[in-house]
Structure formats: structure tokens, C-alpha cells
Write a structure and sequence with these properties.
Elements lengths: L1 H23 L6 H12 L3 E2 L2 E5 L5 E10 L8 E12 L1 H5 L5 E7 L2 E6 L32 H8 L1 E7 L2 E6 L6 E15 L6 E9 L3 E10 L7 E10 L2 E10 L2 E12 L14 E12 L2 E11 L2 E10 L6 E12 H8 L5 E2 L2 E11 L3 H7 L1 E14 L3 H8 L12 E14 L2 E10 L3 E10 L4 E9 L1 H10 L7 E2 L2 E10 L4 E5 L1 H25 L4 H16 L2
Parallel strand pairs: 5-7, 6-8
Antiparallel strand pairs: 1-3, 2-3, 3-4, 4-5, 4-6, 7-9, 8-9, 9-10, 10-11, 11-12, 12-13, 13-14, 14-15, 15-16, 16-17, 17-18, 18-20, 19-21, 20-21, 21-22, 22-23, 23-24, 24-25, 25-27, 26-27, 27-28
């Protein structure tokens, strides 16, 4: 009994001693030893209010009032702050004189990510600064291959978790600054050890969009640098699922992104579309080498057709240069145009295009100034809803009583044209439009401001030409070899085009006919085969043919 009582007393004493250790041992005196190591690894100043030893629920330490200051070039406020940071260690290895971290828990972290006016993120300078970056094209220092991940890996942490807190993303690079907040963050990172492949889970709500985001996957194996041999993530953004794979080596990275279906109505960004669009079998294969980002393959199905593209951009400057190419096959043009904008005109048909572009910057002023490129566009078996080009021509010629099908639509079998883009102007070259009643050719310009300046010559079929000529004396001016050629002008804007008749072109046709008749008459006089009275008769017939009298 005495032995039992003595053992119980010893246990009570040991337990009491253990629970009194946090009050007997002051860990704050060690700050000067390990804080410089942390600051050097993060390339940030670090503030710690208090450090206490903990024995429950596990042995470890609690660091209160943690603040990691931001890069002074971005903000004087903290980049990250925590109510407290709990570090728990394993008991058995500790009894053997070895420290193994079992869990790190961040309580109520507040993190602020800033994108400055030059388009550089404050997280880009976390870690030891690398070699100085060239002044052009980037104004940001080259990020180090060392950083906070290395610290966790060297600590050999079984689990890192976040309880509560929020992450703010602030973009001041645009004319209208934007801010998004990740609230109710649920974060868990496991197996953070050198040579192992950690698992990651993130669940949060993005405000003000009220958009749920979930990320699950693995990356690794971990090294002392940030090189990652394999990345495998599943990302859910609202109702849209993505698969992300790739790898990172120094400043280089390879990324592949895929999604079975994307509805633009569910995306957290505002696109310049009049109505939502569904994209199917979305695939991206890209790589980054330093500041050069290359889109090796972009492919997706859209409006029953296939879209493929490539691009390259050099990041880091205010107006990054880029080159790109795009191929479109079998796209239904009607739904595509309806999704882009609501206009008085709608063009249907099956469209294809080859497009090559280069420029600098992505804002409309930058694109207007620097965008250049060429394209070939073709549309088969379609209809222009909202206007009948032949009807417009008849109205100009004041022809009445002639039916030309649907008065508000132009049916065509083919539209083809080459386009050249430069300084905010789209030049339409070699335009060809084939219809049952006419063939149109021409060209002109379409501005980025949507202003039209087109000249189109409509060559009517013989049947339609004869019908019009019989109803309009003026129309006979354009009659040649039994067919009528009408020089039309199209001005105004894409939303409100204005149609007109090129009278200079019409009078040119009259001159050609008069010239031909005059040459025949003079030739006949010189040869003696024509008499003066015959010339008078032919002249009367010419004007009667032209004007009906």
C-alpha cells in the first residue's frame, strides 16, 4: 500500500511538473537564434509576440502574435499574420533526443496577396532573392527556388492545417482595382517531408462572388528546392471541374489543364459575352521558361465545331509582347455571333478560319495600337438575317413589284474573305459572296470601333437582271452582256449599317456602253459601211435602251 501511494504521489508530481513546464521554461529567449533563420528563408521581417511550451493536447510550442511583414515595395502592412501558431512534436522520438514535428496548426491566419501596377505579385519575392533581373522586359526580381516550403520539408511535418482565417487578393494593376477574399478557409497538408509526396486539401468560399472552391491532390516528392517532379490536382470552381497536372523545375514549369465542360455563366470572371457559352473537352498544354510562357496547345469544342490554338507571351512588362495562331473548323456561326453581341444582323452557317496575330498588351488601347495579323475566313450554306442585300439594291434603284424571296434575309452558299489587321483597322480583302440570285465581290475596312467602310459589287443573275431592267430605266445603266452589276457601298456601324449606290460606278457603266457604240459607229463611217442617218438611228436606240425612251 505504501508503495502504491508513493507511486501515485510520484505520478502526480511528474504530471504537475509537466504541466508547470510552460511556466518554468521561457522559449522567448531563443528568438534571437531562430528568427533570423526564418527571416532569411522567407526574405521577410518576422515579428513574434510570445512563445510558450505546450504539453496538452500534445507536447510542442505555441507562438502567439505572428506577423510576416510585406515587401516594402508593395505595402507597409503585414503580408501574413496569425492569432497563434501551434507546433506539436512526437513524444517517443523526443524522449530519445530527436525532434519530429507531428502537426503545425495556423489559427485565424490573415494573408494579403497584392498585384501591383506593374503586374507583379508580392509573393514573387518570398524566399531568398535570386540574381538581379534585367530591367527589360520584367521589373520584378527573379523569385528564389528556396522558400517556406523548404522550411516545412526540413522540419519533417506530418500535417499542416489552417483553422479559420482569410486570404485577400488585391489587384491594382487595372484601371479599376479589384479585390477578392477567400473566407472560411479549410486547409490540410499532410506528409510534408523530404522525399515524400504531400497531399493537399483546400476548401473555401470566394467573396464577393460567393463562389465555392475546392482543391485536392498531391505534389512532389519534396526536395530542398521548390522543384516538383509531379503535380496532380482536382480543382472545382463552383460547378466547373478541372484536372491539373504538371511539374516545376527552378524557374521553369509545365502545366496541363483539362475540363470536360465549362459554362461561362459559372466562371468567376466577367467575359465580354452577351449570353453564356458552353465549352466542351477543354484542354491546355503550356510551359513556362523564365518569363516566357508558351501555350503549346489549346483545344476545345464550341458551337459544334473545333477550335485549336497556340500562343507565346513574354511576361513581366507593362505591355507584354505576344504571338498567337488560331484555327477554327465547323463552328456554327449563328449561335457564336449571338453570344458575342446583340446586333440587328445575324449570320448563320458553318464557319472556318485561320488566324495569326501578334501584338503587345491586352487592353483595347494597347491592342488598337499594336495588334497585327492576317486571317482567312470562310462560311458555307448560311443566311444573313436582318437584311436582304438584293432588296436593298432594289430599294436604291426604286424598283417596285419584284419579289426577291425573304425581304429580311440573304441566303448564300459561300462567303470567303482574307483579313488584315493593323492599328485598330480590319481590312477586308478579296471578299466573295455566292448566292442563288447574285455574286458579290469587294472589300473595305471594319474598325475596332465597329465602323464600316465597304464597297461591294453585286453581279446579278441573268434572270433577275432582266426582270429589274424591265422595271427600272435607271437599272439599265448597270446592264452589260445581259447581266446587271450594281456597285454598292456599306457604311455606318456593325449594329446599324447604311447601304448606298456608287453613282460614279454606275455612270462609268454608261460611259463604257456609249464608248462602245461610238467606236462601232466611227469604224463603220471610216469603212463606208455605215451612213450618218444610221448613226442617228443607233444613237436613238442606245438611249432608248438606257432610259426606256
Amino acid at each position: 500500500m505504501k508503495i502504491a501511494i508513493g507511486g501515485l504521489v510520484l505520478i502526480v508530481v511528474l504530471v504537475g511538473l509537466m504541466f508547470s513546464l510552460p511556466f518554468l521554461i521561457d522559449l522567448n529567449k531563443y528568438q534571437d537564434q531562430y528568427r533570423p533563420i526564418i527571416e532569411e528563408a522567407l526574405n521577410r521581417k518576422v515579428k513574434l509576440q510570445d512563445i510558450r511550451l505546450t504539453v496538452w493536447p500534445r507536447i510542442g510550442a505555441r507562438i502567439a502574435g505572428v506577423a510576416v511583414l510585406d515587401d516594402p515595395a508593395f505595402s507597409s502592412d503585414p503580408f501574413a499574420s496569425l492569432a497563434s501558431l501551434d507546433v506539436g512534436v512526437k513524444l517517443m522520438p523526443l524522449l530519445g533526443g530527436k525532434v519530429e514535428v507531428e502537426e503545425v496548426t495556423l489559427h485565424d491566419p490573415v494573408i494579403t496577396v497584392i498585384k501591383n501596377k506593374k503586374g507583379v505579385l508580392n509573393v514573387a519575392t518570398i524566399g531568398k532573392p535570386g540574381k538581379a533581373a534585367p530591367t527589360e522586359p520584367s521589373k520584378a526580381p527573379i523569385p528564389s527556388t528556396e522558400g517556406p516550403l523548404k522550411i516545412l520539408a526540413l522540419l519533417a511535418v506530418d500535417q499542416v492545417s489552417i483553422a479559420g482565417g482569410k486570404v485577400t487578393y488585391r489587384d491594382v494593376s487595372t484601371a479599376k482595382p479589384t479585390e477578392y477574399v477567400l473566407q472560411d478557409v479549410d486547409f490540410l497538408l499532410t506528409s510534408v517531408r523530404l522525399g515524400q509526396t504531400p497531399s493537399l486539401h483546400l476548401d473555401t468560399i470566394v467573396h464577393p462572388l460567393n463562389l465555392p472552391v475546392r482543391l485536392d491532390g498531391t505534389f512532389g516528392p519534396l526536395k530542398e528546392t521548390t522543384d516538383i517532379e509531379a503535380i496532380n490536382f482536382q480543382l472545382a470552381v463552383g460547378k466547373t471541374d478541372f484536372t491539373i497536372t504538371g511539374k516545376v523545375s527552378g524557374q521553369d514549369a509545365i502545366v496541363n489543364i483539362g475540363s470536360p465542360a465549362i459554362n461561362t455563366a459559372n466562371l468567376p470572371i466577367t467575359l465580354p459575352l452577351a449570353k453564356p457559352v458552353e465549352i466542351k473537352n477543354f484542354q491546355i498544354a503550356a510551359e513556362v521558361k523564365g518569363r516566357e510562357a508558351t501555350l503549346n496547345n489549346l483545344s476545345f469544342q464550341l458551337f459544334d465545331g473545333q477550335v485549336k490554338g497556340q500562343a507565346k507571351v513574354v511576361t513581366g512588362s507593362d505591355v507584354p509582347p505576344f504571338i498567337s495562331s488560331l484555327t477554327v473548323q465547323g463552328v456554327q456561326l449563328g449561335p457564336a455571333l449571338d453570344a458575342v453581341a446583340t446586333t440587328n444582323l445575324s449570320v448563320s452557317g458553318t464557319a472556318g478560319a485561320d488566324l495569326s496575330l501578334k501584338g503587345r498588351g491586352f487592353s483595347l488601347p494597347d491592342l488598337t495600337k499594336a495588334l497585327e495579323g492576317t486571317s482567312h475566313v470562310g462560311v458555307k450554306d448560311g443566311k444573313v438575317e436582318g437584311v436582304n442585300l438584293l432588296q436593298e439594291a432594289l430599294a436604291i434603284l426604286k424598283v417596285v413589284g419584284l419579289s426577291v424571296g425573304d425581304p429580311k434575309a440573304t441566303v448564300f452558299s459561300t462567303i470567303e474573305t482574307d483579313l488584315a489587321i493593323k492599328q485598330g483597322i480590319v481590312t477586308v480583302q478579296r471578299l466573295l459572296m455566292d448566292s442563288h440570285d447574285f455574286q458579290a465581290t469587294g472589300g473595305g475596312t471594319i474598325g475596332f470601333d465597329q465602323r464600316l467602310n465597304l464597297a461591294v459589287r453585286m453581279n446579278l443573275s441573268q434572270d433577275v437582271s432582266q426582270k429589274i431592267a424591265g422595271l427600272s430605266p435607271v437599272a439599265r445603266l448597270a446592264l452589260k452582256d445581259g447581266r446587271m452589276s450594281l456597285p454598292l457601298t456599306i457604311g455606318g456601324t456593325v449594329q446599324q449599317p447604311v447601304y448606298g449606290l456608287d453613282m460614279k460606278g454606275m455612270t462609268g457603266a454608261v460611259q463604257e456602253q456609249v464608248k462602245k457604240k461610238a467606236e462601232e459607229a466611227i469604224g463603220g463611217l471610216l469603212k463606208g459601211t455605215t451612213k450618218p442617218k444610221d448613226i442617228q438611228k443607233e444613237g436613238q436606240e442606245l438611249f432608248k435602251g438606257l432610259f426606256g425612251r
